[in-house]
Amino acid sequence: MTRYVSVSYEIFGRVQGVWFRKYTKDKAIELNLVGYVKNTERGTVSGIAQGEREKIECL
Question: Carries keyword Hydrolase (predicted)?
């Protein structure tokens, strides 16, 4: 049985200006996941990813 999950995340450290969002988006598309990823005003990157549990774990 396929299990679908939704996770929210916030990444700290040097994540802006290093293509982190682009990499995350490309990997999510490759894994057939949906959601979003964005820069925050605090200098972090946050997002939500939804899809099969195993693929979320790969992300």
Answer: yes
